[in-house]
Amino acid sequence: MKVPLSWLKDFVDIDVSLEDFVDRMTMSGSKVETVEQIGGEINNVVVGRIIERRKHPNADRLQVCQVDIGNSIVQIVTAADNIETGDYIPVALHGADLVGGIKIKRGKLRGEVSEGMMCSGKELGLTEEDYPGAETYGILILDKPYELGADIKKVLGLEETVVDFEITPNRPDCLSIMGIGREAAATFKKPFNALDPVVKEGSEMVETAASITVECPQLCPRYAARIITNVKIGPSPKWMRDRLKAAGIRPINNVVDITNYVMLECGQPMHAFDLNRLEQHKIVVRTAHDGELFETLDGVQRRLDSDMLVITDGMNPVAVAGVMGGANSEISDDTCTVLLESANFNKVSVRNTSRKLGLRTEASSRFEKGLDPELVMLALNRAAELFNMLEAGTPMQGVIDVYSVKPEQRVIQTDAASINALLGTAIAADEMKAMLIPLGFEVGCNDSRMSVKVPSFRQDVVEMADLAEEVARFYGYDRIKPTLMKSGISVGRRNVKQQLMEYIKDVLTACGLYEVNTYSFTGYRQLKQAGIKMDESFKPVTIKNALGEDQSLMRPTLIPSMLEVLVRNINRGVDSFGVFETAPVFLANELPLITLPQQPMRLAIGLYGNTDFFTLKGIIETILEALAIKGIYFSPVQCDGFHPGRTAEVGFGTAVAGVMGEVHPDVLDNFDVEKRIYIAELDLDTLLDNGTLDRTYVALPKFPAVQRDIAITVPKHALARDIENVIKKSGGKLIEDVKLFDVYEGSQIPEGYKSVAYSIIYRASDRTLTDQEVDKLQERIIKALGEQIGAQLRG
Amino acid sequence: MLRDELDELKRKFINELKQISDSEALEALRIKYMGKKGLVTLLLKGMGDLPPEERPAAGQAVNGLKEELAALLDNEERRIKAAERQRRLEAETIDVTMPGKRPVIGKRHPLSIVRRQIEDIFIGMGFEIADGPEVEYDYYNFEALNIPKDHPSRDLQDTFYITDNIVLRTQTSPVQIRVMESHKPPIRIIAPGRVYRSDEVDATHSPIFHQMEGLVVDHGITMGDLKGVLDVFAKALYGEDTRTKFRPHYFPFTEPSAEVDVTCAWCHGQGCRICGYSGWIEVLGAGMVHPNVLRTVGINPDEYSGFAFGLGLDRLTMLKYGIDDMRLLFENDYRFLKQF
Ligand SMILES: [Zn+2]
Predict the structure, then answer these.
(1) Count of CB atoms within 10 A of residue A715's CB?
(2) Confidence (pLDDT) at B204
(3) Strand arrangement of the beta sheet that strand A324-325 belongs to
(4) Among A644, A697, A791, B23, fewest CB within 10 Å belongs to which?
């Protein structure tokens, strides 16, 4: 809400500096967004009078003038030819600033000293509308003998300070100069000069000229109108145009300007109809017919429906209630009788209509926040008063006022103690009363009991907490003492899952991986690019109003985002990189969605560069070990987007934890990268549910270990896991560890076989093992390997 | 005659010893004279050829020589070893200004670092961490927070819709409702998380960003407590000289409501580019839990009161590190991530 300060001063005397004003208004709840100084760029331009004028001795087109600027007489050379001796003109003196950053300096023109420059209207930012003659070529001739030497900004009213307030949706009353004025009066403890319009009416009764019928009072609690006769359309005066412009509204003509002026001043949107263009000289407020067509003022043909409220002339719509008027009843240059509408419309209805039509106006944005029906009459009379002042027409006698639904008078019963208990203050009831009264509340105090009548324009104030805010605002939020909760100690901590989550992230960073943060959105294109097949079982969580196709789904997997991050870094020349992300994925239970989708947490890991499958596998083993999860397995698996021979399902016990592997070369081709990429996606919830930070100490061994290596040839497709299992099973509990240390295929190994070498560590906890014992175990192992894997001991 | 021979041997030994500069040659010399078949050893063995009466004197002389040579050898060995150690140390001198070999370690995302720091501050004040779904019912995101369907503040939050009743949460505040539905007061939680609003991407906007909600509900909670807790938080995050400023504001689910500014950590309130020369930075929205919200979850507002606050994690992260473009938080460029 842009508030020109000169306008605000009609309501309250402001005698503090601008800085203080901005500060204290913000601290009392009217937040200042920006302050704009209009005319601020003009400087050192004063009123002067030409007392002598002669031709330049060296130039035919120039004139040399002596100009009286009050305390001295200066010589000015000009090329203008519209000046006469005796004219009052604006003079830019040495060092002056003009509109557009122009600077004026003393100088010589063809040998004659010029102390400055006489200004045109344009150089002062004036238009023909602002000042007759402003756009005429030449110097701006002032209309009156102003005080010589006076600042031109003051004389021409070029100076204005406009303060832009952020108005929160609960305070539609502050979408007005009057409302801000009331807040300012309360803030600075100054009297509030309420509007008290005096209307000079004609003798004819308004009822003879028009009638009003409201068919749906719930949607239109009040509809009032005045009729203005003898309307003379023309421009409104400069002061009104200046205020409108400063407040951000383009002046049109006196009638439209009056309605806009009143809207800005009181917060009540108004509309002016050309009465003679209302077919039956009447207003009927009704809901639109489905499919009814109507051309709004902006020239757009709108299709209405039965939920929309329209103003009609008994036959056809002439306005969409509270949103916009129609082209058919618009004020034109030959309008001579005006029906001025001041009405109250249901906020929900206006909001829905405005949204459906995609049409948001100054009027609709006010109505949809809920306006005070009591405002209707004040605004109507103020507008009539302005018609009088501007001599723009004559209000007929009386007002037509259909006031069907009056708001209930709200009274809040509370006490100072409750308010103090909420705020943590000790403010006396009297003091609270003194704060509430300037805001329009009526307060009855009985000891500490308070009975507070809420003014009709404060629909937002419903109960004690609302009053507490009013008190706090004017007591000063900064005066409320910071305290800490008096209740006893509570235990703050991360729960086990949260601790495990932090631990996993610490382990992953220790493994050299960077944590990344990617969008939760994806699209069909990205899923396809990542090699994910979308069959009938694919149930996407789709955003109805997505920003674009590529951001239209909530991701069902983290893999496409992970690929995107890795590919971006590859393309930016990062040789080797490893990353992880923890985030939920979104899986619909049913389509269309009725219940919330499942949103399980996933952990994605991605690597490329100086790395391979087994590095990724090692990282996963490290995480699972960190979580103390036992019985981990990796089995070959086929999975969309992964290399068919280099992908494993990860699990433990009977739980499947996820998948890991090398990205399919087809997918890499989709991204146009050559580096191999390794990705894992694990179900984090499964990991967290099964993980623990608990540990039990195991005594360090007292007896030495025995290490034996065996090298065997096995069929090529024998899995390391199976060989290891045979070793462990057949070797029994004396085996402490089994490590694969060599795999070899090639010459000396028969076709279809490979050589693998294991080192086996034996240890007993209660004695030193003898060679014979170990030899026996070795024999047993080799036998079992031969039987179960087809292994042969290498010579 | 033996004496001459011994003198000659000693002279020869000393000459040879002088030529020696490394321990290998020294060892060879030791063997040549003192070894099993060494010259001195041979002399001793040759004693048997002498007449018995000469033997004691000769033995003494040869033994004397042996000891003398052994001492010389030991001496020389120490010298050579020292010289050799010295040579090795010199040879092993490295250019300590050459680059270090760094272990590959990863790093947390800056958002995650700041989130953890803030969590720890509140954990220190007795808060627990709660969470809730990102795809959320309209009811939790709006209705239960005193934002009915026709409420104008819905316009301020451009909401992504999945269905008419399911949205991408626009704030972390729905977690308040979920916690209050499932827990009786006293409640003291924070809820960090991801939120969504349909903003186009630019340096300061993103359709996805992160907030942290706070909620305290108990008997006798006051607005003073809200100020106290947030004051402790701001000082813990930005330093002891940080001040907070509470300005009246409006949120549908708190009453009274406030916006909270903290003194700019970059200029300590002097005014700089980052704070727009105001010395203050707006970081929080806060207020006393609206009685309607308490009623909605079945908590009697006459018996209990509470406060809630919400802060923008992306903004705090950007302020903390001086990051000037929000997009960097989602790009995951290695050169960016390695800086934190
Ligand atoms: Zn600063």
Answers:
(1) 12
(2) 86
(3) A211-214, A282-287, A309-312, A317-320, A324-325
(4) A697
Chain B: give the shortest CA distance to residue A44, in Å. 28
Average pLDDT, chain A: 92
pLDDT of residue B326: 94
φ and ψ at A663, to 5 degrees? -70, 140
A573 and chain B: CB distance < 8 Å anywhere? no
List B residues 255-284 in contact with A (Cβ-Cβ < 8 A). 255-259
Q: Which positions 411-430 of A are in contact with B (Cβ < 8 Å)?
A: 421-425
Put simply, the chain A residues between 364 and 393 with a CB less than 8 A from any chain B CB are: 368-369
> If you write DSSP's letter for every residue of B65-120 in order, what string do you get?
HHHHHHHHHHHHHHHHHHHHHHHHHHHT---TTSPP---------HHHHHHHHHHH
Strand-pairing partners, residue A713, are: A755, A792
Q: Tell me the chain B residues in contact with residue A586 when contact means C-beta distances shorter than 8 Å.
A: 134-135
What is the number of alpha carbons within 13 Å of residue A529 lying toward its C-beta? 18
Is the pLDDT assigned to residue A145 strictly greater than 90? no
State yes or no: pLDDT of A122 exceeds 70: yes
pLDDT tens for B77-86 read: 999 999 989 9
Residues A684/A655, Cβ–Cβ less than 8 Å: no
Of the listed ranges A124-138, A345-359, A444-458, A635-649, the least confidently predicted one is A124-138
Rounded to whole angstroms, what are the CA distances from B145 to B178, B261, B308?
A: 11, 24, 12
Rg of chain B, C-alpha, whole Å: 43
Strand partners, A155: none
- In this structure, are strands A632-636 and A642-652 parallel, antiparallel, or unpaired? antiparallel
**Coil, strand or helix: which one is A173?**
helix
Task: With CB atoms and an 8 Å threshold, state whether B337 touches A516.
Answer: yes
Which residues, other chains included, contact A327 with Cβ-Cβ below 8 Å and sequence gap of 6+? Answer: A295, A296, A297, A299
* Token reading at A389: 């002042």
Is the pLDDT reported for residue B289 higher than 90? Answer: yes
User: At a CB cut-off of 8 Å and minimum separation 6, what does B79 contact?
Assistant: none
Give pLDDT, residue B1.
Answer: 64
Integer Cα distance of A296 and A280 in angstroms: 20
Given a cut of 80, whether residue B156 has pLDDT beyond it is: no
Task: Give me the residues paired with residue A706 across strands.
Answer: A762
Indicate if the pLDDT at residue A289 is higher than 90. Answer: yes
Phi-psi region of B332 (alpha: psi -120 to 50; beta: other; left: phi over 0): left
**Is any Cβ of chain B less than 8 angstroms from the Cβ of A618?**
no
C-alpha to C-alpha distances, B150 to A168, A391, A633, A642, B153, nearest whole angstrom? 16, 42, 54, 48, 9
For residue B214, report the phi and psi dihedrals to the nearest 5 degrees: -130, 145
